[in-house]
Amino acid sequence: MKRLLILVAMVVLSMSLYAQNNPYIALLGVFDTADGGVMLSVPTTTLTVDVEAECERTICGPYARYAQKYLGVRAPLTDKNEWRMTRAAVGLADADIYQQEPFDADAPETMSYTTSEVDFPVVLPDKTSTNAATLESAAMAAANAIFSLRRHRTELITGEAGEHVFGEGLEAALNEIARQEQAYLELFLGKRITSRVAYRYVVTPESSRQQYVVCRFSPDQGIVPSSDLTGNMVVLQITPAEQVVSPIPEAGPKETATLTCIIANRATCTVQAQGEELCREVLPIYAFGRTIQVAQPKHR
Length: 300
What we know:
By secondary structure, the protein is an alpha+beta fold. 24% of the residues lie in helices and 36% in strands. The protein has two domains: 2-49 and 204-295, no CATH class; 55-194, no CATH class. The chain has four helices and twelve strands, in the order αββββαββααββββββ. The strands form three sheets. Strands 1, 8, 9, 10, 11 and 12 form a six-stranded antiparallel β-sheet that branches. Helix 3 runs antiparallel to helix 4 (167-189).
């Protein structure tokens, strides 16, 4: 038994020396262990697929319909969510050289005029008021406040506001004016909030399959499970090389003492969504590999 274990170790060492182009070679079959047990070696490859999506949420301002009239700009008139796929990555789960950390979903980024994601500041009448005249008069007052703040900013910068406003006092005054102006602008232009989500999926390739639906993507809901047929497929496509070249000598027909090994085949792995290729990697995969017989080193 000890002699067999020594021979197995010698084979593994010789494989590591020869396998410069493809280090993924493993013993295949049943072997005795040092403690008298039996070990079954069936090498498999596990892939990780990371996908990331971004959501842009638009929140309509309460005075949006008056933005063109009082500010001369167009503003979104309805709330909406728009999702898009941003990136993907595929790697080996069992090797540091290929393993990648899952994408970190960034904190929601508020692309708006204030830090609030829900509430609108300084809304004069109720946002749901049906009194058009009251709502319009409030919008006109907000527009006048914006122009007044801009006028005061110009006066501060040009010195027309007085000679004693300078240094940190001037900077603080300008920052406060900017904060108030942005709060008023948000009433017209609304909010645009960007957030990201990331997921990791695990796939174990099979020799009979080259395509896997890891999840689905919906422009309205983002990344959804593969069972949700409302979304478009996010596909992992695996295309193995046509030939597996053995980097180590195979046992000849006269060899009687051999060990069975499997060589992982190089395969091109791509992640595709909505007809777009998000990533591409060439990885060694055992499922599409080649089984060979290796002569046991002769004991001297």
